[in-house]
Design a protein that fits this description.
This protein is mainly α and 143 residues long. A 3-stranded antiparallel sheet has the order 1-2-3. Helix 2 runs parallel beside helix 7. The relative contact order is 0.18.
Length: 143
């Protein structure tokens, strides 16, 4: 790390609490706006815990929501201009683990979650209108 990178990092750390609070507030706004959408399981925070929502993962039940995860990802980008992500996949789906004999289907719970989970965009710079558009988009795709 260079001295300049360290200096920038030190200044950014001074903003961390504010950034985290914005993420928490944005997540609460999303949760409020999406809580009654059939087929979506939203993230929850256990009592007495704090979650800063680096990601905002939702699970899509294809039957109740009306589309698969793959269709949701595609339609969000191509119909609504919103990039949603799949940030984590089960380790046994990766090449390194498959070379060691692991296969899809060995861990059915992990497989089921991976087939349904997507992450909605969340960051401390999102405006209320951007969050409203995201909520409206998720609701508009639900069939």
């Amino acid at each position: 790390m260079t001295d300049i990178q360290a200096a920038v990092g030190i200044e950014q750390l001074k903003k961390l609490d504010g950034f985290n609070q914005r993420r928490i507030d944005n997540a609460a706004y999303l949760t409020e706006g999406l809580q009654d959408v059939p087929g979506l399981t939203l993230p929850t925070v256990a009592s007495g815990c704090k979650h800063v929502f680096h990601l905002y993962p939702v699970q899509i039940d294809p039957e109740a929501y009306g589309m698969t995860k793959e269709d949701f990802v595609y339609d969000m980008l191509h119909e609504r201009g919103i990039k949603v992500g799949t940030h984590y996949i089960p380790l046994h789906w990766t090449t390194a683990f498959q070379k060691r004999g692991f296969r899809k289907g060995q861990f059915p719970v992990a497989d089921a979650v991976a087939e349904r989970i997507v992450t909605l965009p969340i960051n401390p710079r999102q405006t209320p209108s951007a969050l409203d558009y995201l909520i409206e988009s998720v609701r508009a795709l639900q069939k």
